Sequence to fold (318 residues):
Amino acid sequence: MMMSSSADLFSAKASVIWVAALFVVLIFHCSHLIHMRGERRWYHTAHVVMLLGMLYMYAAVAFGLDWFPAHVWMIIYVATSAAIVSWMLVQYEQRRTFGFLWILALVQQGAMIYMWMPMAYWMPRLSYAFAVYFALEAIAWLMRAYIKPGPVNALAGAGGSLVRPLAHKSVFGDICMTIMAASMGYMFAGMQLMMALPPQSQQFAQQQQPAPQQQSVSRPGPSESGLQTMPPMPRAPKAAASEPVRPPAETSPPPLAKSYTIAAGDSLQGIAARIYRDARQWRSIMKANPGLDPRRLRIGQMLKLPGRTPPGRACCDY
Fold:
């Protein structure tokens, strides 16, 4: 029995669309990186680094890229986050101001660290919180709320604050920031929804278990002399108060299925999420099926499924 893949949002077509949109945003930030100086140049540098990671994620789905392991990306975003925090502390010590956009950039860098963590350590509430946050940020950029008079600018410019309000007027820049925030929210929501699907291994194990048989209890019927009475059932002796309660025996995880039949709408990421509880193990499935093209999965095609990969290594297969 095949499971529904309605929560699998990472089809090759959708990934190609995101790659094209993010590539346009990358060109925008690179042009500003070249022509601007000082703090603005570093700001666009942070976004270029983040965009490269997002492009790689979507391109890995669309084109099957396998160039850099996940721990390399984690090191990059930990370093950029540490650099931003250090620079903010220096500005604070020297009583200098910094742009409000740096706060948003720091949140984005922290989100990228979480995104490249092994999915075995993901927390659904935090993942959905990131998805909602970036959805709201995308709406704010689209409505140009960050440059209108309101609570954000009032907070940024109140009472000698170290945070400067926004002052740019680029409509195309706001559209690019909208795309970037929306792509991150889409990634968090899609990955966590795939993790929320019931695992194929549990369903496979349940199908192999025979249905419990119900035992019928015969009751004595009426006789010629009248209704027969049931003898009293003996009561079980009460357990001694001092007898310790034994905990239930630990059960082993359900066995993994050894094969999987591709259904309409399936992708390797969705299959890996349902079977291994980690969408990033799709590389293991592809390696176990030589010649498999992740962009052209055929309905009805049988896939060989490898064993589970330890969580510490799963992050490096994406």
In short: Residues 200-205+254-317 form a domain with the Membrane-bound Lytic Murein Transglycosylase D; Chain A fold (CATH 3.10.350.10). The first strand starts at residue 98 and ends at 99.
